Amino acid sequence: MELLHSAAIPSKQKLLIVVTISISLFTIIPLLYPFVEDPNFFFKQQHPSQTSIVKLQDSVAATHKSCDIFSGEWVPNPEAPYYTNTTCWAIHEHQNCMRFGRPDTDFIKWKWKPHGCEDDLPVFDPLRFLETVRGKTMAFVGDSVSRNHMQSLICLLSQVEYPVDASVNTSDYFKRWTYETYNFTIAPFWSTHLVKSTEPEPGKTEHSVFDLYLDEADERWTAEIGDFDYVIISSGHWHYRPSVYYENNTIIGCRYCQLPNISDFSMFYGYRKAFRTAFKAILDSETFEGVMYLRTFAPSHFEGGLWNEGGNCLRKGPYQRNETQDDVTMKLHKIQVEEFERAEVEAKRKGKRFRLLDTTQAMWLRPDGHPSRYGHLPEANVSLYNDCVHWCLPGPIDNLNDFLLAMIKREEEKGLLAQVRKMIPIPAPLNHTRHRKSSYHSPPVTTSTLRTQIRDDEQRCDLFNGEWIPNEESPYYNNATCWAIQEHQNCMKFGRPDTGFMRWRWKPDGCDLPIFDPNEFLEMVRGKSMGFVGDSISRNQVQSLLCLLSRVEYPEDISSSPDTAFKVWNYKSYNFTLHVMWSPYLVKTTKADPTDPECNLFSLYLDEYDTKWTSQINQLDYLVISSGHWFYRPVIFYENETIAGCQYCSLPNTTQLPLYYGYKKALRTSLRAILENFKGLAILRSFSPQHFEGGPWDKGGDCVRTRPYRRNETIPEGADLKIHDIQLEEFRAAEEEMKKKGLRLRLMDTTQAMLLRPDGHPGRYGHIQTAEVSLRNDCIHWCLPGPIDTWNDILLHMMKTEKPCTIVLKQTMELLPLFAAIQRTPRVALTLSFVLFTLTIVPALYSLLANPALPVLISSSETDGPFPSDHVHLSPLNSPSFRTLSPVNSPIPAPPYHTRHQKSSSGKIPSPNISPIPVPPDHTLSRHQHSSSHQSSSPVNGPIPAPLNSSPVTTSTLRTQIRDDEQRCDLFKGEWIPNEESPYYNNATCWAIQEHQNCMKFGRPDTGFMRWRWKPDGCDLPIFDPNEFLEMVRGKSMGFVGDSISRNQVQSLLCLLSRVEYPEDISSSPDIAFKVWNYTSYNFILHVMWSPYLVKTTKPDPTDAKSNFFSLYLDQYDTKWTSQINQLDYLIISSGHWFYRPLIFYENEKLSGCQYCSLPNTTELPFHYGYTKALRTSLRAILENFTGLAILRSFSPQHFEGGPWNKGGDCARTQPYRRNETIPEVSDLKIHDIQLEEFRAAEEGMKKKMGLRLRLMNTTQAMLLRPDGHPGRYGHLQTEEVSSRNDCIHWCLPGPIDTWNDILLQMMKTEK
């Protein structure tokens, strides 16, 4: 800046400097843009290396809808049960179904699978649960079903520990159980109605009713809840009984009491009042500061009669989803939810935490889970002979604790401990730390905030959480081609019989990890140096790297000494130097007795650097540090040159310190050394787990497995996990310090990946079988080749992720001397300006000549709908904004990033991939004229045969008036009926059909989905008449605002109008998000305006920690469309699917909360909050800026069946549903309800404005009945790799969506 503000520089020279700098930036930025977007961009221009390199694929897209764990279905689980009636003492007799002869066992072998979730609901992990609730208390308040729930929890926890009875009284209704190791207490509170009640006197039949005091809390539990951290309340079945209702100590009515002069109230009255009073008691409690969970009603399943009239529950399998329902159960559930939502509002105001454990749907589907006749001996005299109310143990009720743990973990993630314990399994007590083959366990050993992310078409994926998948191309070297393999890692040399352990690769969640490319790596480190610091596992990784690079070049040993602990290798062709520095403890270390070669006791100086490596790192560009296994040995700890204690040392007068003490201190000191001495990229590689089974390393333990574990099939041992935990904590602390100094520290969290590879160690094959070795079975180091090669796949990717910043900084620094020279020599500035201008213009012109569509293709606007497209030729109508990752799953994936468009064999860009709506070769075609050049042959089925009457556009017999015999009909309620005249265009006659909606092109075998029309109740809906439409809009303009579903309707309209005229593209810019088409013969302008959220929105910032979210300014207009609507006569607005994503909400320029974000100190707002506000704001914008006919088109439902969009969900139906055959998803229905409410409110306001009309196109019900109308698997080639194989969101063209334009024209005619 001093250059430009110097008074000594003439003004003309200042101007030259400014111009030169500006042109320089215009030159550099476009060159850097693709590199910043894709760090691997320039490397991709090179030929691949000798081996097949696996590239990033879009095979997995992020889920953006929050995962609703309470909506789903039951799926088989052969691993269950996790306890039995012999291992758990807490099972009551009448729930001990197996004891009394139940013949089937399948009812215990099911688990709950939520819909729309990326991962299944984890099976209950008793270790994780107990560690999470350590030092806390939990209360179960309710009836015998609540106690049933608690007994299930005790049985599940019995796998780890049995509790002791710590009850303060002898009543079985008020027990206290304490888990002493964890200081965790469970307490049941018997309260059948939740409010104060008195039971009928035993044997008194003339007044055998309960007295319920509906406005008085049951103090037996409300007085105690201040002592508890978690309170789970539930109630229901006892409200079926006869009761007298009191309020203000006065009888107000009763249920089934048959008492004179007392009003008979429904059960629902008392039920609602009881919950309202219970919630109020919690809200008013001054001592309760915990979390209240409402566990919703658990239904009974009596069939064939009531409980006392022979009713029974004999089914042996779960219901299918929506197979049946019970009106009373649904009503009770509705009351609970309504009262909960009412109380939740007040709870938020008071800072209390109310949560909903909404298990009703799951339990309703389990009629097979009750004891029935098997809750007692056959001859027993019991009041409830067939028990279809309680639940067998083990059985479906165990799932309530799966839900409970998931909710507690979610609560924990919102708290202060989230940054430490998020996604980290908790170590078991020492007597429970064996490897187990089980499905109950903690999530992967990673911390989400620390994970390095891969940008997969702008989707951020989790690099360190995933699974191992087969890779037949590996290995990429062997023990004959690589000289660097040490004997004890040369598994094949010593007779290992299996080779499968080499043929796997790591598949992260949400993306593919590229296989290591040695050419790319060596180019990236050209002229640089890299060091590895640690123990023999660190050296193991270096040997893997040397072997992988051996495919390109062998290095030269340039070590300054023969000490094998400190080696230096140089790759001459690349001037790259690789250092290996031995430091198993990372800090200064000496042998306790240097004169004794057998001495295994080491002295660690925990606050002093190991200068053998810390003195060298200032010469390095990359540093990879790791350690761990050596800390299991006996050591003496020194601090300030004084003995602080020891570990496993048995020295007199010396404090015994735990393993973790020394490791934490040593790691902290080593990271401080990096902070003070290193300026490059530092990477902490997390702990590498061991896999001894059958005993420890020195007592016959071995690792003989030949395959990886499946995800979550094993858990880490406590000590290993603790080391990993320490690494994460120390990494976070150091990372914060380094950020302040502009230094870079990253975490390579490979622990979870390697935990799943028990097959990758040498085992007994690291030596000759007769050899005398100290470690006979090596289950610590890794075979070469083997799983450890993946560490270098990850290392390369992490380096690539860091690369752009380095390049930008370097090039900027290199420009500074140039600008100084410009100050002294103005002529040089002129010359340089001309050269830079030429360098800018010529490549741009060359690109345009080579690819005229380039300006469209590289548009950076937000132009995609909710469904991803991974076609090689990505249609620009589906071109994307950033993909985002959601903590939770949604059927609406984020849009993909632009795929590069390829030329066709003819050298031209295929028109469907050039612009949002491909332009026909000749814009001047008049009505009814069709050029042969428009015909396109389909690679599979060919074009749809055109209807016989499609050429002359006339009104068919189906196009009747909407008013049928003067009867006003309901346009939006009806059914679909056959229509043999359709379709009215096909994929050969319409140029506007996008690839992924061109269902017939990619081999859809059925055509029936095109041959239906909508028949409203009370009338017929005329089929769209393009002549009539164009005459009606002559001289006018129309705009469509919304997401890709809105654009789907525009494409249908363009196709319908193509029978009369093709439009001309008159868009003012190449931005494909905002297209303008002109029908010149009619002077009709059609606008397409992209706004998936309808309000002002900012895209994620990749440099920001919040980059996974979109920021919505709920009270600000999206001026990209609101500024244009005053020029329109018709406006159609719609939205919905994008609101399933994680979002941050702003109001009055301030953060007001977020949705699915789990951000600290940020209010978690419900899904519908943002949508309501956004729609309200957009309708207000219409009120203020528009004077024509505005139409709000209601939500377009999706139809995934058999799973969510990313878990095999499909829409394979070939017929419409019949009326009332299906119901909408809860979240879809909520959006529709919001639309109706906001429409009504806005309509009132708009009636007051002259010339402004707002109408509702309520197409939701009609489209709900059309599961057959989506592309499904036929939106792409069947062999094509796409991120979402089955599109059950958008609509085929031609198809049901054409009906929207039938309705649109009718609504316009009605207004005319």
TrEMBL record:
One protein family per Pfam: PMR5N
InterPro entries: TBL, TBL_C, TBL_N
Polar residues biased stretches: 948-959
Residues annotated as domain Trichome birefringence-like N-terminal: 65-118, 460-512, 968-1020
Keywords: Membrane, Signal-anchor, Transmembrane, Transmembrane helix
Localization per Swiss-Prot or TrEMBL: Membrane
Residue numbers spanned by region Disordered: 885-959
Transmembrane segments: 15-36
Domain Trichome birefringence-like C-terminal stretches: 121-407, 513-798, 1021-1307
Main subcellular location: membrane
Membrane topology: Single-pass membrane protein
Record-stated family: Belongs to the PC-esterase family. TBL subfamily.
Name of the molecule in the record: Trichome birefringence-like N-terminal domain-containing protein
Lineage, uppermost ranks: Eukaryota, Viridiplantae, Streptophyta, Embryophyta, Tracheophyta
